[in-house]
Write a sequence for this structure.
């Protein structure tokens, strides 16, 4: 639930089509009527990640509930280029941040991965998803990345789609710079934990035919910085920037 | 004061040279002896942003004070490419974050700028500098960007060096993508506030011969995301990545 430049945008789960009526949950109804002080007939923008953005009209139902009547589509659906982000979770605030930034920069899927050297508290996928939703609301996005549950690296690799490149940021200095590689698509960017990949993990990764080892310049980057920089470079070279 | 992969790195102000003796302030002495439990003869890495990284030997002086004896240089001095970041400060945590990320990605100067639509609390330059120092300690950097005090946009422009390009991220959609422009150097990346530049500010910017208006893709980016993405792209195209 976010206001930006006077425009209130709400993410909703339901299908959006002209004339549809959408009963809001109490928190969204409270946000519109209690926090933003909107009354009957006020217009807000809604999106569900699938149907673009629509103008919707608020119809309060008593003091605590409300319905949105869907008017017309204002922004057509647009899906970002086919990039996934797979990253070893870090401290809570930084992990939330990665979810937010990946959503803004445009990825289709966010996948936390557990590696040998991953040091993380239990990760709350719902919280990550909430950060992605807030980022999408804030940034005018009509698409929401799929935020999937954390999985061990070997399981992620076992299910790997044969046509998807795995761009794997290697701390070893012998990998070519991502900016000098023509980045493949569809692709996933894999960012390891602060301690790096264990030698056996690095060996398994390098043995995969879809793997492309890259480096991100002469300075050591934190996990969150590396994730954001790699997505930006991929978008610039291969995506829709 | 940061430990990474077993290596403790300290930023110090003093000149570094073989045989120099450096009296530590109480907080750094406490960190080394109280928190990290180092005793006499322990080795740490120190850097001052000018002389590279040096190995230093701890010599406690009583329980609360300590001297570092500088042994030999372990990493030569290396200065990042000549890029400045100028940005309109945002919420405190995000502003701290921008200082941290710009340091990791490599800029020479960080300049907060006050524009018409800047909504920010008073900005604490010392806190920003502390975040830059922590990022440099953490990321193995030997250089520390100069963090300068906030200044109004017109004053920043009045003092503008004639040979420095001003890459100005424009929300207007007609500017070319940064990834499609051969980025000039030396340069500064200027990121405006969430509300964008006021029309008169945009006009003044566009009228400058050093200005290069660019866009950052089809999605709206928050200020902090835009700053990080723009630095990453500049580094990839024109810097040392």
């Amino acid at each position: 639930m976010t206001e930006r430049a006077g425009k209130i945008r709400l993410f909703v789960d339901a299908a959006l089509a002209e004339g549809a009526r959408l009963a809001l949950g109490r928190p969204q109804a409270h946000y519109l009527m209690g926090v933003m002080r909107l009354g009957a007939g006020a217009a807000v923008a809604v999106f569900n990640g699938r149907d673009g953005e629509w103008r919707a009209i608020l119809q309060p139902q008593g003091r605590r509930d409300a319905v949105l009547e869907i008017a017309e589509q204002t922004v057509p659906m647009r899906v970002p280029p086919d990039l996934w982000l797979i990253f070893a979770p870090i401290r809570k605030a930084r992990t939330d941040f990665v979810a937010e930034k990946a959503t803004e920069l445009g990825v289709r899927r966010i996948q936390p991965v557990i590696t040998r050297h991953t040091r993380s508290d239990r990760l709350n996928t719902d919280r990550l998803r909430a950060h992605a939703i807030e980022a999408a609301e804030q940034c005018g996005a009509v698409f929401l990345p799929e935020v999937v549950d954390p999985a061990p690296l070997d399981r992620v690799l076992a299910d790997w789609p044969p046509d998807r490149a795995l761009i794997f940021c290697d701390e070893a200095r012998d990998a070519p710079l991502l900016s000098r590689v023509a980045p493949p698509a569809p692709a996933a960017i894999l960012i390891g934990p602060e301690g790096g990949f264990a030698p056996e993990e690095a060996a398994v990764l390098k043995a995969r035919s879809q793997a492309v080892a890259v480096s991100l310049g002469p300075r050591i980057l934190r996990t969150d910085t590396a994730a954001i920089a790699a997505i930006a470079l991929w978008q610039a070279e291969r995506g829709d920037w």
Notes: The mean pLDDT of chain B is 90. The domain at 2-75 of chain B is CATH 2.40.240.20 (Ribosomal Protein L25; Chain P). Chain B has two domains: 2-75, 83-237. The two ends of chain B are 27 Å apart (CA to CA).
